[in-house]
Specification:
The protein is α/β, with parallel strands linked by helices and 308 residues long. The protein has twelve helices and eight strands. Strands 1-2-3-4-5-6-7-8 form an eight-stranded parallel β-barrel, surrounded by six helices. The longest helix is centred in the middle third of the chain and has 15 residues. It starts with 5 loop residues before the first strand and ends with a helix.
Length: 308
């Protein structure tokens, strides 16, 4: 079992969608440059969500046009519907596109209606059309949201989640993300779901996207690692969650914290390919961008050591 992982930094998208205040484009670009300098090879940069619903990404095309160039770095944009893919194609044709596109499916009808304003059947129809429109010009990343629990329906059938993963694989996804959207997963349910995916014969890499609502994100990432996962989504400072204008989930709904997971993996002898000092630099920039202390235990410890 190779002890090397790929971490996708999601602060600029999943992190910022939870913020009430718009973060200026120039600030986002400074952060993205810091992420590339730290060694991240996959970075979630923005979303093509409609600005009326998620104002944080009203500058998606402007941001993509000015992204820092870095060899071997893939930038990702989220696309909720076919119109979003058309926007991504237009940007790509203009020479300013993302390399990866995320397509979202919720594991339950309740979350689909609230988050995507449609039904599961209709969204799968959208996803099929989106894959057709993309025409092989991007790496497609299928995302199954609320894969471990739904704020509206409670427990989620893992068999249904595996069926969604298989469906994404059949549509040509290059990566498939298991989203623990409300932080309902446990190490045991994570291990069980990865075992089911393996038994289903899925060969596409399955990304662990864990939220820390109940303080279990790091433990769940380790469970995924032990189950064979080598792709993880995180966000600096543990920020993020549902869009600011959509209310569900309780408490701190943020992502697995980048600083903390990188530190743990490195201590375990798991290579991340990241520069610890530049990760620390990026962590400080993220706090400065949001104007508050964030939730990384590693960052807090670093500050205490400096003032000891």
């Amino acid at each position: 079992m190779a002890d090397r992982v790929t971490i996708c930094e999601c602060f600029a998208r999943d992190g910022l969608q939870h913020e009430e205040q718009f973060v200026p484009t120039a600030t986002k670009l400074e952060l993205l440059a810091a992420f590339t300098a730290a060694g991240f090879r996959r970075i979630e940069a923005t979303s093509y969500s409609h600005p009326r619903h998620v104002p944080a990404f009203a500058d998606a095309s402007e941001l993509l046009a000015a992204l820092p160039e870095a060899d071997g770095v893939a930038y990702k944009a989220t696309c909720p519907n076919p119109r979003a893919v058309q926007r991504a194609l237009a940007d790509l044709d203009a020479g300013r596109g993302a390399e990866e596109l995320s397509f979202l499916v919720s594991a339950t009808e309740g979350h689909t209606e609230r988050n995507l304003r449609t039904t599961r059947a209709a969204q799968w129809g959208n996803v099929a059309e989106m894959a057709r429109l993309a025409g092989g010009r991007f790496t497609l990343v299928g995302v199954v949201s609320v894969a471990f629990g739904c704020p509206f329906e409670g427990a989620v059938d893992p068999g249904s989640v595996v069926a969604d993963i298989v469906r994404f694989a059949e549509l040509g996804a290059g990566l498939i993300t298991l989203g623990d959207t409300i932080g309902a997963a446990t190490p045991r349910t994570v291990a069980d779901l990865y075992r089911r995916v393996e038994q289903a014969g899925v060969t596409v890499p399955v990304v662990a996207h864990m939220h820390n609502t109940r303080g279990t994100a790091i433990a769940n990432c380790v469970a995924a690692l032990d189950a064979g996962c080598r792709h993880f989504d995180t966000a600096f400072g543990g920020v993020g969650g549902h869009p600011a204008r959509i209310s569900y989930g309780q408490g701190l709904t943020g992502n697995a914290c980048t600083e903390d997971l990188v530190s743990l993996f490195e201590a375990m002898g798991v290579e991340t390919g990241l520069d610890p000092e530049r990760v620390a630099d990026a962590s400080r920039l993220c706090e400065h961008a949001l104007g508050r202390e964030l939730h990384s235990m590693v960052a807090k410890g670093r500050k205490e050591a400096l003032h000891a």
